[in-house]
Amino acid sequence: MTPISALMTPAPLPIDAEQNLAEALQRMDMLGCRHLPVVTGARLAGMLSETQILRYLMEHPGATPGDVLVTQAMGHAFAVSPETPAAVVARAMIERRLDAAAVMDQGHVAGMFTPTDAVRALAEREPDEKPAPATSEWPRRILCGIDFSAGSKNAARAALDLAHLSHGTVTLFHAFDLPISAIDAGEAAAAALGPIERETDAMLQALRRELEQQAGPSIQLAHGLGSAAETILRHARDHGFEMIVVGTHGRSGLRRVFLGSVAENVLRHAPCPVLVVRRGD
Questions:
Q1: What is 4-123's CATH number?
Q2: What is the distance between the terminal CA atoms of the chain, rounded to a whole angstrom?
Q3: How far apart are the C-alpha atoms of 250 and 266, rounded to whole Å?
Q4: How many CA atoms lie within 13 A of 278 on its CB side?
Q5: Model-level pTM?
Q6: Which residues contact 222 (CB under 8 A, 6 or more apart)?
Q7: What is the mean pLDDT of the chain?
Q8: What is the CATH number of domain 141-277?
Q9: pLDDT at position 169, please?
Q10: Domain boundaries, the chain
């Protein structure tokens, strides 16, 4: 079995539990990571991720990153030894719904293991290696919101990587609103809708052709009428998707906590797990 040390990312500098979220975000920016081990003295105290920071700030509207201590937003620590089999670690993370594990070596954080590391290991697999067997523990039906930006295309690639794990499918979904002039026109709305649908279909098909160059999961296409977040959520509920993947526009520094109205609303109201992918990830 592959040990977790072969797949982990070397540990970023840990952050003290009594530092604030602004300092944590600055460190994540500097190191180019999305997770930090949290320590109290030399002891591992917890784990902190961008998602946990976002969730805390969403649940406490008056809070600002500079006023919130890391210990207030961090999650539980999950520590494993470097020799622990990667499959055992991944299974434990799924069962406990954790998004990171700390690899501890002689009392020090030697590395971090996250779903991104698992996807990277899959992407780097040699072409003649057999694909991993499908498992019901990974989502089989993934909905990916597409606005044709670089961020959403990166999200689509991440969705395809995840679908490899379950031999599942990815649906590329674009939401659009009618122009206000067409809505005001009443019966003329249908005439305005046709060209928009045709253009959307053509753009989705072009994106599918681009993504299909990397052989893998089946790619399906869909679109809906309405505001982006609301329409994505409705489509996910109506069609029983098991995961939603959305992209952001690559904000840096403290601004990246606020993912934008679409990603934030999807994350807040989704009926299933959500993966938010930054443009640079």
A1: 3.10.580.10
A2: 28
A3: 17
A4: 19
A5: 0.53
A6: 171, 172, 173, 174, 235
A7: 80
A8: 3.40.50.620
A9: 92
A10: 4-123, 141-277
